[in-house]
Amino acid sequence: MGQKAHGVSQVRTFEQTQEPQTAITGDETGSRRPAGLSAKIMLYAALAWLLFQLWYASPLPFMLDWGIVNSTQARSIHLGFAIFLAYLAYPALRRSPRHYIPIHDWILAVIAAFATLYLLVFYHQLVHRPGIVTTRDLIVGVAGIALLLEATRRALGPPSDGRGIGVCDLRLCRPLHARRDRL
User: What is the distance between the alpha carbons of residues 183 and 181, in angstroms, rounded to a whole number?
Assistant: First the structure.
């Protein structure tokens, strides 16, 4: 804590000791630290996510016979919160602003959240037409996957993109190659 310089002990303040740690943490994580209304929206979204998870995991929905969601709907809500916060918390590029959230990230966050909540909003329509894909389903699905990959890249970094696509490709295409070999 204290350093001796020419026989005089210098005591560093708390801010002086924490400043390098904050700089290192901010550079390592790459996350934003917005202030004002943006910070409050992120805080309240995270709190709403927390309350939803507690509600879903508790017996209260069944005791009150209200707010019961199945696991498919719960996953949609969970991913909606996660992707919304990912677009707000992580900038697109290293040179992107860290102290505020640009309007295009707000737009992407809302579109991405809608794409994930599409399953929740249109759940009954989707359940009554299994296997029948509409143009709207296809557009929202493709946009949702692209936005999910971008949110993953922002949060985890570029290497996750290629690996995720490669694993997805192998898992989806393996049965197709196996079928061709049998024919």
Answer: 6
- pLDDT in the model for residue 158: 76
Question: What is the pTM assigned to this prediction?
Answer: 0.73
Number of helices (H), then strands (E), belonging to the chain: the values are 8, 2
Residue with tokens 């209200």: 66
Please name the amino acid found at residue 84: F
At 130, the amino acid letter reads P
The SS3 assignment for 9 reads: strand
d(C-alpha 105, C-alpha 111), whole Å: 10
CB environment 110-149: b (16+ within 10 A), e (fewer): ebbbbbbbbbbeeeeebeeeeeeeeeebeebeeebeebbe
